[in-house]
Queue: 4 jobs
Job 1
Amino acid sequence: MSLLFSPIRIRSLKLPNRIVMPAMHLNFTMDGMVNKKLIEFYRLRAKGGCGLLQIGGCPVDPEAGGEYMIGVNGDKYLPGLKSLVDVIHSEGSHCGLQLYHAGRYTYSFFLGGKQPPSASATLSGLTREMSREMTVEEIRKTVQDFADSAARVKEAGFDVVEVIASAGYLVNQFFSPLTNLRTDEYGGSLENRLRFGVEVVQAIRRAVGPDFPITVRLSGNDFVEGSNTNKENALLAKALEAAGADMFNVTGGWHESRVPQITNALPRAGFAYLARNVKRLVKAPVAAANRINTPEMAEQLLRDGWCDLVSLGRALITDAEWPLKAREGRSADILHCISCNQECLDNIFQLKPLGCLVNPRVGHEDEPEAPKTPAKKVLVLGGGPAGLTAAATLARRGHSVEVVEKRERVGGQVFAASVAPNKSEFATLAETLFRQATLAGATVATNVELDEKGIVARRPDLVVLATGGQPLRPPIEGLDRPEVVEAMAVLDERRSVGQRVVVIGGGPIGVEAALYAAAIGTIEPETAAFLLRHRAEDPETIRALLWRGNKQVTLVEMQSAVGQGIGKSTKWIAMKEIKEMGVEVLTQARVVRIDDAGAHLDTPEGARTIPVDTVILAAGMTAHNPYANLAARMGDKVVVVGDAGGVSDAAGAIRDAYRKLRAV
Ligand SMILES: Cc1cc2nc3c(=O)[nH]c(=O)nc-3n(C[C@H](O)[C@H](O)[C@H](O)COP(=O)(O)OP(=O)(O)OC[C@H]3O[C@@H](n4cnc5c(N)ncnc54)[C@H](O)[C@@H]3O)c2cc1C
Ligand SMILES: Cc1cc2nc3c(=O)[nH]c(=O)nc-3n(C[C@H](O)[C@H](O)[C@H](O)COP(=O)(O)O)c2cc1C
Ligand code: SF4
């Protein structure tokens, strides 16, 4: 019997399954009002079978967050919230709303230049701005703001109200000795630092009555030096439970933590231990969160007692029908989140609406499907992300689609993209896209390369050119030497490289190639676990063995910085690894010649020669479109998609193919 699909009670609420979608900012509203975009996004997730959908976070006061978040701090928001709740209920799901106060994580820009309020005046590691200490009157008013908003949550018809006590927001700021330097009853001892969070939950309980469920988003460990660890945060859960909390959704870290939390660097379900740690101290149900991707993993976590519920954030962004497919045993049909953050978190950081690299429909749920057109015979050339997305999009619309891929496998550059440290999930992207195309009815032939005659002979009504990108070769003397290899080839074929490596180009691909080379000779995680478990080596030695390989890698970039083009949420990790792995970075430098002596560079400090065994070329990509003539001749019977029409990235290629073909 499935535990995932067994019911669970949260105070008065009975959920039909153990799947929770945690609160996530979507940036779908710019004035705080619920709109059609939001409603249709959540309608699909409710219809998809998620047990509990948490909406928000929603600022409890105008100073608590921005207008671009869903509003709850005034009665004007009630009609919209009610209509959202009605839709979720009509689809058979349940919903809660997360109450949010950013404290020192708000930018003064959003407060008309005023200093953000916090437990104390400290420098925010996220905004690099100083906060100001809240007065006791302000604290009391804020506690009341939480209670007033909670009353509105209940009035709007939500089933649950949630408080955010994670990610380094205001409740954390009061609880942490790092950010709470107060000497009054809200600072100092553990009990005093707990007081604000406890008062918030108590006030909410008074506002919503004895039966209404209150849930808490908890940081299982702050992962910030000098702040609370798993020990203190479990105590916070215990105190909040005593104050009236009925469920905990346990995540890890603050925004300013230097421990990766939601990227591919964190192993799948890597923070489940934090949920189990909280579970030891509370009776209330506990959800584990972060990087729980597959139904099998979710089921195992429940079975093995790590948690009582599973929190699926981006998994449910990518596939609204994840629960439905899981229940029907169609795990292979799920569109898997690859933890890239490219179109979700990175968009939010740029105040753009949320999307998804894997699923181009995300953020467009309110757009009606285009009316069907007469069935066509379509030939797709190229089985990379663009070609496979084109095939799935067209086949779903009833067209007869054949994909022809010249290589032995589909996926295109995605395989090269999956090789560097922390990029393994890109391999699942190839599987997901292939599965979606074939599920929709497209046929896929590999090891086939057609010439123009072959294309015409197939008599297609439409040809989709998705032949992708190819490496650029800058005019550098010596590029034809045997020690020079393209980054694409190194990564795609997992080639071994020589002892002394120079990487030309510090863009995203160059950084990945450098990390790949630098990781050669590091120990496997299993070996590290063995050494740690048996205390065979001290932890610092094990760290060094994990980080330092046996290659000497130099990354050469013409611009003033490397890694330009990598998203905000993952770039800092790549840069941290470049440093920890001992990659030498040379900026404003260029390789001018390669010969027997090595790579000759122009650097701001003057000419330099680096003896080298392997030169990895990562000087950018350019469109590869071998059928440009055909495109010119066949006119509107040819559509060019993805990198073949102009180099972008996988997100851009998928989006491009979907947008160009969704109405064909
Ligand atoms: C190392 C690396 C890391 C990357 N990391 C990221 C990342 O983190 N995020 C991101 O969004 N993007 C990333 N990218 C870029 C991304 O992979 C590409 O932008 C994306 O794959 C482009 O998709 P596409 O389908 O247009 O082209 P491609 O992936 O290039 O696929 C084209 C396909 O067409 C086939 N083909 C070519 N000619 C023919 C022909 N004549 N007949 C039949 N088939 C043909 C090719 O074999 C290939 O399979 C990375 C790329 C690399 C190389
Ligand atoms: C775009 C985005 C916005 C988020 N906003 C919130 C938020 O408002 N409140 C919150 O508690 N967590 C927020 N989170 C964290 C998620 O709830 C979740 O904990 C995180 O994505 C890890 O879980 P996952 O791997 O299942 O996605 C956000 C995450 C993303 C990707
Ligand atoms: S953009 Fe990437 S991380 Fe975000 S939901 Fe989609 S696949 Fe997951």
Job 2
Amino acid sequence: MAPSRPLPQLTVVNAPFWAGCREHRLRLPRCRDCGLVWFPIYERCTRCTSTNLEWIDASGRGVLWGWIEMHKGYIPWFADKLPYNVALIRLDEGPMIYSNIIDARFEDLRADLPVEVVFDDIDDTISLPQFRILPS
Ligand SMILES: [Zn+2]
């Protein structure tokens, strides 16, 4: 039997984020009291602890901040996908998000490379945000 792909656990708190991804929208919480936009998803503002939040549609754009190339399949599902990159992207709205840069060679990755989100429809409920390099 083929190994199963690790997928996010949906919760009451992160459901709006994943529902947005399903619609190919990168939705993030923004604090109505101090204006902070944050990720990963928490039920409280990570700056002022307010629970007075709204969900915004992020631009889906950002820059590559850090990255690695995986050469060992620590998780069985990834064993035949090696090598692959794991990237940290600084979104235009401020938060950082871990993802992958698709359709790129590792040697082409560099700091501050402009990227944009694309969505990989995994099943009926999960679409994973991935990123691709914006043409210069
Ligand atoms: Zn706040």
Job 3
Amino acid sequence: MDKPEINDPYLIERVAITENTDNAHLLEVDGMCPLCGNYLLIPKGKRMNKKYQIAHIYPNSPTPNEVIELQGLERLGTNCEDFENKVALCKDCHGYYDDHKTKEEYLRLVMIKKRLLAASKAKISTSHQDIDEEIVLVINSLTNIDAITLKKMELEYKALKISSKIEQTYSILKYKIETYVCIYFNLIKETFQNLDQEKKLNFDLVASEVRSSFLKCDEEMVSKSEIFESLVKWLKSKSSGSSSEACEAVISYFVQSCEVFHEIS
Ligand SMILES: [Zn+2]
């Protein structure tokens, strides 16, 4: 492998991609290759097969030809290992891009990445504004929950049909949950703590019932996406007028803090 050019500070040593960053890259492109539109996760049995790689837009170790071809062109991020200079591509597109990199292909990918960065920035700022308040309202609506309601909720899960369908959406669901938890964990935690301290809500009761319901569903092999969706629906019905996003955030918190989904081995 070529050593980075000493006189080009943009080129630094390769930095390994963590699982979280990998997830962020997959979320950024909505699970689809931004060059050809192919799905980046393909179900195989009970697992999801990774059909993507994280590509450098400007190469980490450019060949002498690439240095000439890409000279003077815009670069993203402060160095080649920044999130801004990487993008999830399907394996075919990645291979093709790395092998036959032209100025036009490079600039096209720079443009795509800039659009993706702008889109996710917009998504995060609008969701922050609207959802913060809503989450508090949703959680407040949980103050009226009693043991009977929870019991009924449990029975509703049991009534869910046993589903043997492949978890096509499971990985996407996982990323969704992780993203919600990243953004809203503290807000949700504090809101629950406050209500619990004011004796308006018994958090342990709510949490343990949600957990046991998840586990029961799990035993009956109900699809995790289905469980998640039905919990969101249930929560939405308890807090009239709230958005699905706010309810998804609260359920994600339970999934995360109660560790209700088993790791897929
Ligand atoms: Zn592709």
Job 4
Amino acid sequence: MTLHLPGGATSTGTGVERAVAAMVSGKPVVLADDRTARANGFLVMAAETVTTGSAAFFVRHSSGLLCVALPGAECDRLDLPAMTGAANDPDGLAACVTVDAASGISTGISAHDRARTVALLANPESSEADFIRPGHVIPVRAAEGGVFRRDGVAEAAADLARAAGRRPVALFAALDSALTPTELAHGAELDAFARAHGLVTVSISDVIAHRLSTEPLVSRKVTARLPLQAGVTRTVGYHGLVDGAEHLALVVGRPRDGEDVPVHIHLECLTGDVFGSLRCECRYRLDRALATITAEGTGVVVYLRPSGTAGHRGSAVGRFDTGRMLSSVAAHILRDLGVRSVQLLTDNVGHRAALQDRGLPTRIHGLAVAAIS
Ligand SMILES: [Zn+2]
């Protein structure tokens, strides 16, 4: 069985920083939904900066459905239950009952009226009584944890608003195509649209990469001396700040001033690590890495224990790329331990990319086990 920890971040984050700056100043940005090859586009802005003019811009260039991503706690506080009892949206969009502002509007559908409704949804002073239901704006419950929990448009939009120092409440709408008016805008048309209107384009992947590279993912909790069959290690425990997972680093020696440190990144596998299951190579790789590191008198085993079910894990699960998150967690741990460059004891493309993206030059150790797909 193979262990697959795919890709590291490739974005420099520059695009996200420009998008965040735009949202700080109350401008919309174009968000490409690059989860699919078609990559439809969305207009996004921080909801608390919406004006009648910007709402009119959204209506003019979109399909006309204006959505507002909100944290679940805000949906609960404002009494915005799910639109349907048993949602079956294939995209998993958690739409709530539609709303209009309870006062200060006429029919509710004009840009003026919807701007007022959107602004009220973003206002911490608002209460459930400030809205009538149904209405012409669709609140959407954004997953807690944002794109780290679900790589959706609502989550990316809310994450961008939060990064801009705004409330994590974001107006978004699917961009219509001007070239093919019967379809949504996608691909190269998004860049052309953004250029024509002086907007920044980012993708959901950009938002994920930016968060992975800029946010602290772990905090160091405890250090203990741990004698093993292979030799004495220093064990350092880390707490995952995103998922609450508990990870370990087994450190041997004083890793060579942080340069060229032999490293094995291991994903917890109950059946392999504990019982020596022969269905996978986890135990073999772990034993071999510990033996190599002990023989060299220096090195680190990063033992990743993702939250969720135990047992051997194959490729990443769920909508968010768990493997990519774990590779970034490993990079954070190694940097915390003072490692500055790495010799990997397993040849894993995803790990190499993630470590290098985090500024850790990485090469493959001479005794590395065969490449993992
Ligand atoms: Zn295994």
